[in-house]
Amino acid sequence: MKIKDLLSKEGVSLNQTAADQNTAIDLMVALHDKVGNLNDKAAFKDAIVAREAKGSTAVGMGIAVPHAKTAAANKAGLVAITVPSGVDYKSLDGQPSKLLFMIAAPDGAADTHLEVLSKLMTMLMDQTFTSSLIEAKTPEEFIDLIDKQEDARDKKSSGAESAAPAPTSSGIKLLGVTACPTGIAHTYMAAEALEQAAKDQGLSMKVETDGSGGAKNVLTDAEIKDADVIIIAADKNVEMGRFNGKKVIKASTADAIHHSSDLIGRAVKGDAPVYQHSGSVTSSASLDNESAGRKAYKHLMNGVSHMLPFVIGGGILIAIAFLLDDYSLDPSNFGSNTPVAAWFKSIGGTAFGFMLPILAGFIAQSIADRPGLAVGFVGGALASTGATFAAPGGDIPSAFLGALVAGFAAGYIVLAIRKITDGLPAALEGIKPVLIYPLCGILVIGLVMCAINPLVGALNAWITGVLNGMSSGSIVVLGAILGGMMATDMGGPLNKAAYVFGTAALATASQSDQTGWMIMAAVMVGGMTPPIAIAIATLIFKNKFTEGERKSGPVNFIMGLCFITEGAIPFAAADPLHVIPSLMVGSAVAGALSMAFKCTLMAPHGGIFVFPVVGNVAMYLVALLVGSVVSAVLLGILKKDVTK
């Protein structure tokens, strides 16, 4: 397979203009959709944005390589745009990006395409080559340039053009390992930069790449034993036990891409500490080294990410129904008293009703792949109906907590069934996923849910009673905690935990018990505050921010008002010790005030666009403004002046 097999002329768009990073992403996602690489355009963009939230994929030198490995891609593909005037893509070197490739990699597919993509990443380290791509006049010329460069590189790699450089008299032996979270772009660019920097200094260097397709060019025990210095350029955990007692330099992939000569220079001088490993040593084939907690979090987030579109879409429609209805007609039927309101509530309720089956189904799918999906769906539905042995048709709903249990239980039930049936004849292999797994899995999850629904239902009733029994003071404390959590990691586990708690509370709220609506209001205002605070601070305390930050700061007004907390991430990443505490305090104040003012929110998302359905909206705006100003002032106090 060659690069041109993944990149068609329809997937190349030259001489584009892009106002910002989001515009550039939209352009490239549209190209992927146009050439048929996607089965869910919106979900694919969400995956791209989520990857950017971990750190910009603009690697500098005018290049950005956004990428995502997701089920929203139905096949491996590549698209490209050129932006001669440049676009601010939050590059590692602060320079605008002019050449942008976007990689789509499907979940669960063969990884043969990854070697092709890794080759492209290393080719992009040649600045003459990238300049020629930016100057290309037609898509055909663009692809032809890539094809010729690839042929030249393949020929060089085979040894036809030149031999490896002879080591210098220093005789130093260097090894390296590169790894990034997705293992598609930065991993290979960092490896290429290290190898080229070593070559420039007359050294040869072997670099192991821990990419998405697994570890390549793996270092042997003998090579490690003979090595003088090992450079680890990684943004995730790699197996370090094998380097015990060796001189090791630790760096990020960004350091390797932009400062590879400095790293090699340090290695040549022997400027590296001796690594002392504590703990067990795992095999080289298992480099991710994920904890059980991290795996559980990933399974949970797979369910939550698939659930949110149903919650948000359905929840907003239900909120509109309340907005359009007349409470005085029949308080007990509020939301469905008028035909228009009833229509919105019916459609929204249908979408909202999928929340628990979708959550459980996709948690199970993350654990057991596709065979877990049906079993998880059924488990989530049984949590919703509240089936018990005494009342199979429904009696005690276990709601959100029950669906969580159902998702994890379903996934591990299917894994157990898979293991039990491993010894069956090969002739039965074809009927396992269509008969054995769903039949046995659904039967077992039915038994499990009938057993746990009464227990979890009782726990839910206790939690509801505690919330309803809270005094006004304790409710305010809850609002402060939830608001602060929204600003702690802005899209990470704590942020998601607070948001999921809010949506779960929303599902149990009613006109007679508005606690859930109050919780959702506190969660959303806590998430809106950080970007708005950043925007205010960049306008008032200009000496605290770089020129680039001041230019991008005002955009956060829009992101904050739209409830996109992630807008604050680049600023938090640049100065976490000062920025994150400032934002947490302001968000906690906003959440506390929202609770104190008894503000309510019937919709699970939407920012300023759902303010018409906010209860006590004037004081809600006060809570948002006060929280944002508090964070902005703290930023002005805590952040150091930017040195010119």
Q: Any overview of this molecule?
A:
There is one protein chain. This protein is an alpha/beta fold. It has 4 domains: 3-157, Mannitol-specific EII, Chain A; 174-269, Response regulator (Rossmann fold, 3-Layer(aba) Sandwich); 292-462, no CATH class; 472-638, no CATH class. Helices cover 56% and strands 10% of the residues. The chain has 23 helices and 13 strands. It has helices spanning 21-34, 41-54, 112-123, 127-134, 139-157, 186-200, 221-226, 253-258, 260-269, 292-324, 339-353, 355-368, 371-385, 399-420, 432-468, 472-488, 493-508, 515-540, 547-552, 555-561, 569-574, 576-596, 617-638; strands at residues 12-13, 58-60, 63-64, 67-70, 77-87, 97-106, 174-179, 205-211, 214-216, 229-234, 247-251, 600-601, 614-615. Strands 1, 2, 3, 4, 5 and 6 form a 6-stranded mixed sheet that branches. A 5-stranded mixed sheet has the order 9-8-7-10-11. It has a two-stranded antiparallel sheet with strand order 12-13. Strand 7 (174-179), helix 6 (186-200) and strand 8 (205-211) form a beta-alpha-beta unit. Helix 10 packs antiparallel against helix 12. 47% of the residues are buried.
